[in-house]
Amino acid sequence: NQIELKTAPADFRFPTTNQTRHCFTRYIEFHRYSLFKMLHLSAQLQRVRTPVTARGSPSTTALSALENGYVFALLLVYHLSSFSTHIS
Q: Measured between alpha carbons, how far is 46 from 60 in angstroms, rounded to an integer?
């Protein structure tokens, strides 16, 4: 006697219940894109502030991301997005 877990079928009497996964996915995508834009902008600002000899160094971009706390948020969004793929 093994229990088989499945996703409940769509019930058209309750339309908002079936939208939860879609909304969660869009939420994650929005924050992933926002974070990407912030990191890109941070890297661009770092390039403007650093001298020419230090440009292109991966450590300056990583340092600016760490200073602004974006790395934690990036890991959180990555964790949540990997969680959303296991919901189905």
A: 7
How far is CA 50 from its chain centroid? 28
What single letter denotes the amino acid at residue 64? S
Contact at 8 Å (CB) between 10 and 32? Answer: no
- Cβ atoms of 65 and 39 within 8 Å: the answer is yes
Domain ranges, ordered by start, for the chain: 17-85
The residue among 33, 66, 36, 31 whose CA lies nearest residue 58 is 66
This prediction has a pTM of: 0.35
Structure tokens at 36: 């990407």
Query: Rounded distance, CA 31 to CA 82, Å?
Result: 14
- Give me the tens of pLDDT residue by residue for the chain, a chain 88 residues long: 788 888 877 777 776 665 766 777 788 888 888 888 777 776 666 665 555 555 555 445 555 555 556 556 666 666 665 555 554 4
